[in-house]
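Field guide to reading this record: the first block holds the primary sequence, the second block holds the structure written as discrete tokens, and the final block holds curator observations. Each block starts with its own label. This record concerns Flavin-dependent monooxygenase, oxygenase subunit HsaA, catalogued under organism Amycolatopsis acidicola.

BLOCK 1 — SEQUENCE
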Amino acid sequence: MSEQDTQAVIAGVDELLPVLRERAQETEDKRRIPDESIKSLQEVGFFKLLQPKPYGGYEADPVTFYTAVKKIASACGSTGWVASILGVHPWHLGLFEAQAQQDVWGDNVDTLVSSSYAPMGKATVVDGGYRLSGRWSFSSGCDHGTWVLLGGPAFKDDKPVDFCTYLLPISDYTIVDVWDTVGLRGTGSNDIVVEDVFIPQHRALSFMLTSKCKTPGQEVNPGPLYRLPYGSVHPSTITAPIIGMAQGAYDAHVEHQRKRVRAAYAGEQSKEDPFAKVRIAEAASEIDAAWLQLTHNIDELYQLACKGEKLPFDTRLRVRRDQVRGTERAIGAVDRLFENSGGRALKMGTPIQRFWRDAHAGRVHAANDPERAYTMFGTGEFGLPVENAMV
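BLOCK 2 — STRUCTURE
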């Protein structure tokens, strides 16, 4: 993808932001992303950013993708979250065998794929593949996809032999509408139910391969994008929209404070309050720090991949460390701003409280477990073995 094409996608996203911002409450009320928003993102090329070139994708550098996600989430947290999740799946599918990619994109290169990676189901090894059953939660944007990626252990003779991601067409699963939450209400993160379905071997990808950055998809997608670690790309896909939500909260707060008069302080204008200015400065610095660390680390990995060099394990550990730290910084910034927004910010429909709820909802995602990521980093610093596929 040329720099001109990259900028065209970013410019297209920028043009959509006012509309996405206006639809934010509608999105929350519907408990799903409006079809019009998904269509608009498709039209500007957003979902093609990480898609393989043989299927019409751009294979853009990952920082471009995260930048677009951050912008979308700054307008609507739920839309940014779903865009990030659905948008990273073309990259993940690019790691699968060529036949799996053909199954999904052979007839329609605009096909979208949802996911639920938590091991909520069970697969049994059979001739030619697996039999899969289970119920998976939190499949964000599943109403917009016609395929799904599901995580789970594989058993043979009642013994676990692998942990895989399984790729299923919509005819093999059922979506159950259960999503009713205090935050990220518009993501439509419903349940996926699978009842004893056969998964051919080419539609399963072992986490042992993804953790080693050696996957069958690299035979047809040899570019540097598909040599990046899953444990770096996917967790960053979770943090990027949260940083975007913090930016959206920041923008809404500053605009709110420009006009706010604090009756309890003899009609003092908030924009003249020195303590309000301090909070704004602190929040801005935390958001900038979160973003700079995330993008710097991912770009460092990508540049190494472009040179065909080995991706150091200590760098991958740093990516995870700063990814969870980025989420913490973003949440801290949102909290500082929300605490100083006044009672009117509590009213349903205001952007500040919606960003506050959405950011905290995103924080509880498993990829944002700080203690686990920090422990991995510390273990690596002591020269001890780190046994975790999410690095």
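BLOCK 3 — OBSERVATIONS
The CA atoms of residues 154 and 160 lie 6 Å apart.
The domain at 228-381 is CATH 1.20.140.10 (Butyryl-CoA Dehydrogenase, subunit A; domain 3).
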